[in-house]
Design goal:
Layout: H1 5-12, E1 15-22, H2 32-41, E2 49-55, H3 61-70, H4 74-77, H5 82-90, E3 93-97, H6 103-117, E4 122-129, H7 135-145, E5 153-158, H8 165-175, E6 184-187, H9 194-204, E7 218-226, H10 235-260, H11 269-282, E8 291-297, E9 328-333, E10 345-350, E11 358-365, H12 372-377, E12 387-393, E13 397-405, E14 413-421, H13 422-425, H14 433-443, H15 452-471, E15 477-480, H16 488-495
Parallel strand pairs: 1-2, 1-4, 2-3, 4-5, 5-6, 7-10, 8-15
Antiparallel strand pairs: 7-11, 8-9, 9-10, 11-12, 12-13, 13-14
Helix pairs in contact: 2-14, 6-7, 8-15, 10-11, 10-15, 11-15
């Protein structure tokens, strides 16, 4: 999204204060200040911007600025006039220490902001990168003691958005005591990925895909998220949520909604979110028999990293030794509407797998009816199935697997790739997901943020399953650190007569 000149001039006349509420422990969470600095270097932020880090830790302005410099990415370091730009940016960064539940401390923050604003019109954006247990206190204090008096006030809320449908509704209700829905920006950073943004363009501006996008031609759709590392350093958080809440119910289900939704009336945020909400409400609650859960054990090369091996999940000192929290899950979802009736949507997400970090969508098409070449040459139908792959990370790409004749005498078929590699198409760095979403929040663009009814519908898909897993104390199937995951996932695929895509393969 690009500022037009009118919008840029308009915003430059208004002050913007960005308030980052952070838990500072020597580093900045997810490099969020780096994203602000990148936007600043790209001249995408209003000229009159002030950034305040608010934390319980005692820290001076200079200490915060040094921390920002330490967390800058190479995207910043390699830019022309980097030093000059960064000096300008750092002068706009300040720190304020206080408790998240103290209206007095927020009043002190408000006084500092007013000094910078000097009575001019000002907008304020609060980014809550803090424990969920502190959300409501922080929002209450921000509303009562540090809201903008003559502009807008918005709040970005980091996941997790509750622990189940009940706690999510409770959190939403509490937030709405102090904010309107239009002020709440629930951030899911994967929704800002370049390929996720491109999904709607692919669907709705290319005629060739529109007739194919239904049960008539699509056999199954796979949403895959793989990490080659475990829960290191996040064990305390992860053990409370697990892979289903952390990745599947949140990230993958949102991408599924974009993939499967009907054509919206327009590209306006509410029209898009209306269609996403319809799809989410059409998904059957996931059944236990359609799920495989796993937990990684050590890799067999020692009992810890100091022994040149990777420890089991339950060997993490921040994790309970008898924890049943899944670090891997595969689930089959079905959408009860005329477009997708009977099509399995499979989701797989796991930590400590053999593959590098991968997130992708794999669309497997139906077999060609009465395929002449299969009859004559005995082609493996599963391996010869056309497949459209949208690789979100790493190295964004879209490629289509098609059957093709191998050059030479005789007749032999093989799969070929028609591919669009983003790196070869555009030498510029693709925008960072956080940077894109931060810019959207500043502009008031809500289409990539989660609305409360979407959130409620998403929890409705998985809450019954999560409750059953915990009440029945379902023991996850163990798999080795660095393996392809538990064997049960192959039985789940066989149950629905499908083949898992070779995720992470290069086009």
């Amino acid at each position: 999204m690009v500022f037009n000149s009118w919008k840029q001039r308009k915003q430059s006349l208004v002050l913007l204060s960005v308030l980052l509420l952070l838990e500072l422990q020597g580093t900045l969470p997810d490099g969020k200040s780096s994203q602000h600095s990148l936007l600043f270097c790209e001249d995408r932020l209003p000229q009159n911007v002030t950034i305040f880090g608010y934390a319980r830790s005692k820290m001076t302005n200079e200490e915060l600025r040094n921390m920002i410099i330490m967390n800058l990415t190479c995207k910043i370091d390699k830019r022309q006039n980097c030093n000059e730009k960064m000096d300008q940016f750092l002068k706009k960064c300040f720190c304020h220490s206080g408790q998240y539940s103290s209206e007095k401390h927020f009043m002190e923050l408000d006084e500092k902001l007013k000094e910078k604003e000097s009575g001019r019109s000002s907008n304020r954006l609060f980014y809550l990168a803090i424990p969920p247990s502190m959300f409501i206190d922080a929002v209450r204090c921000a509303k009562r003691s540090a809201s903008s008096g003559n502009g807008w006030t918005r709040v970005i809320v980091e996941k997790p958005f509750g622990h189940d449908i009940t706690s999510s509704r409770e959190m939403t209700g509490c937030l709405k005591q102090y904010l309107t829905e239009d002020q709440i920006f629930r951030i899911n950073h994967h929704m800002g990925e370049e390929l996720v943004e491109n999904l709607l363009v692919l669907r709705f501006s290319n005629l060739i895909f529109q007739p194919l996008w239904s049960r008539n031609y699509i056999r199954n759709v796979q949403f895959i998220f793989s990490e080659d590392f475990g829960a290191e350093k996040r064990g305390r958080y992860f053990d409370n949520y697990g892979i289903i809440r952390d990745i599947i119910q949140n990230h993958l289900l949102q991408i599924l909604a974009l993939f499967a939704m009907e054509t919206p009336v327009s590209l306006a945020a509410e029209d898009i979110r209306n269609e996403k909400a319809k799809v989410l409400r059409s998904i059957r609650p996931v059944q236990l028999e359609d799920v495989v859960v796993g937990q990684y054990k050590d890799d067999g090369h020692g009992q810890g990293i100091t022994s040149h091996g990777h420890p089991a999940y339950t060997d993490d000192p921040t994790v309970s030794t008898n924890s049943l929290t899944p670090t891997f899950a595969a689930a089959t979802l079905f959408i009860n509407n005329s477009r997708w009736d009977g099509v399995p949507f499979l989701m797989i997400a796991g930590k400590a797998l053999h593959s590098k970090r991968v997130m992708e969508i794999r669309v497997q098409f139906r077999h060609v009816p009465g395929n002449l070449y299969n009859r004559n040459f005995g082609t493996d139908l599963d391996k010869a199935t056309n497949e459209l792959v949208l690789r979100v990370q790493p190295d964004e790409a879209i490629y289509l697997k098609i059957n093709n004749k191998v050059p030479g005498l005789g007749m032999r078929l093989d799969l070929s790739h028609l591919n669009l590699l983003y790196k070869s198409m555009n030498e510029r760095e693709t925008p960072d997901a956080y940077g894109r979403l931060l810019l959207d929040a500043i502009e008031g663009e809500r289409r990539l943020f989660i609305r409360s009814d979407e959130l409620d519908a998403a929890w409705g898909v998985f809450s019954p399953l999560l409750k059953e897993l915990e009440e029945k104390k379902i023991v996850p199937e163990l798999y080795s650190y660095g393996s392809s995951g538990p064997a049960g996932v192959h039985y789940l695929a066989a149950k629905h007569s499908i083949r898992w895509g070779e995720f992470g393969d290069d086009p």
